[in-house]
Design brief:
The complex is a heterodimer. Chain A is mainly alpha-helical. Chain A is built from 5 helices and 3 strands, in the order H-H-E-H-H-E-E-H. In chain A, helix 2 packs across helix 3 and helix 2 crosses helix 5. The two termini of chain A are 31 Å apart. By secondary structure, chain B is mainly α. Chain B has 2 domains: 65 residues, no CATH class; 129 residues, no CATH class. Chain B has 10 helices and 2 strands; from the N terminus they run ααααααβαααβα. A two-stranded antiparallel ribbon of chain B has the order 1-2. Chain B is elongated. The chains are: A mainly alpha, B mainly alpha. Chains A and B meet through helix 3 and helix 4 of A and helix 3, helix 4 and helix 5 of B.
């Protein structure tokens, strides 16, 4: 079971859209709540609607995802998100850059921590 | 069923006050009804599964509305603003001639048009039209949030516009009654056509 952790908002701001793109790439078409659940299950903590949907809106405006409305079985209609080829390209390129960045920062921070000890 | 009732029926898992505030905010931003409906449905779908208070999940409706950065679909383009100004000028001049001409028929004299007053009237109304087109969100927000002050300002402006027609000093044009009526009617024809076209457009959008 994944540990539920609340991360500082400024930490999430950078990688959140890439994480959402990854979820959409692997699970799409997927609706907003499904993306929020997948992000939480991945250990990013609870992502509020006030953060999630504006970010998904930007992905849609940037043509990184497309949307569609699917009728709910017993509930309301749901807006689903599907990654586009441009979104997949961005995920691959920016994802690789982010991985290099996070490796570098982790190495630096962990190194500094060891020196402090 | 009213629009409010339809919204309530489709968003049973979202606090009514929060929904009202969100709709007002998006309307003030000129967001289309279709986009507002989509936004509400997405919030409803999320809250139907989440099961907490909408305020805890989405935050303040006003902040959420701003964060969505939805396009202002009602913003007029420059040609549309120019067209609206021209129609407004035609409407004011046409109405002045028509009323003056009609009154002159009954008094047996000529229509006296205060040219400076008419110019001031047209100027004020055109400025108001342009201001509404350019700063629609700010002005509508002022009207909805400071209603009493807005009524006083609008009332004062209206009184000044009405008073300008007769009280402004300056040359007065004397127009024969029937010429005033015919000319006024002719000037109002394109205004009527514009109004009919706008009504037709709204019907198509609504249907």
């Amino acid at each position: 079971m994944t540990e539920i952790t609340e991360w500082p908002a400024q930490w999430l701001r950078g990688p959140l859209s890439l994480c959402a793109l990854r979820v959409i790439a692997e699970s799409g078409p997927v609706h907003g709540y499904g993306i929020a659940r997948a992000l939480e299950d991945a250990g990013l903590g609870s992502i509020g609607g006030g953060t999630l949907y504006p970010m998904l809106g930007r992905l849609e405006r940037d043509a990184l995802v497309t949307t569609d409305w699917v009728a709910g079985e017993n509930g309301p209609a749901k807006k689903t998100y599907t990654i586009t080829s441009l979104g997949a390209e961005q995920l691959e390129q920016e994802g690789a850059r982010w991985a290099r960045f996070s490796t570098a920062t982790a190495a630096l921070i962990e190194g500094a921590s060891k020196e402090e000890r | 069923m009213s629009i409010d009732d339809q919204i309530r029926e489709r968003t049973p898992h979202v606090d009514e006050d929060w929904v009202d505030e969100l709709v007002i905010e998006l309307r003030l931003k000129g967001v289309s009804g279709k986009s507002i409906g989509g936004t509400l449905l997405e919030v409803e779908a999320h809250m139907a599964e989440h099961g907490e208070e909408v305020f805890d999940v989405f935050g303040e409706a006003k902040v959420y509305a701003a964060s969505l950065e939805l396009p202002d679909d009602q913003r007029l383009s420059l040609p549309e603003v120019v067209r609206l100004c021209l129609v407004t000028i035609l409407a004011m001049v046409g109405t002045t001639l028509l009323i003056g001409g009609t009154a002159a028929v009954f008094t047996g004299g000529v229509a006296e048009i205060n040219l400076v007053g008419l110019l001031v009237q047209v100027g004020i109304v055109v400025v108001a039209v342009v201001a509404l087109a350019v700063w629609s969100e700010s002005l509508l927000r002022f009207i909805t949030e400071r209603t009493v002050a807005a009524i006083i300002v609008i009332g004062a402006l209206f009184a000044f516009v009405v008073a300008a027609a007769s009280l402004m000093p300056g040359p007065v044009a004397e127009v024969p009654a029937w010429i005033g009526i015919v000319l006024g009617g002719l000037l109002l024809l394109p205004v009527h056509r514009e109004h009919a076209a706008a009504q037709g457009g709204e019907s198509c959008e609504g249907g």
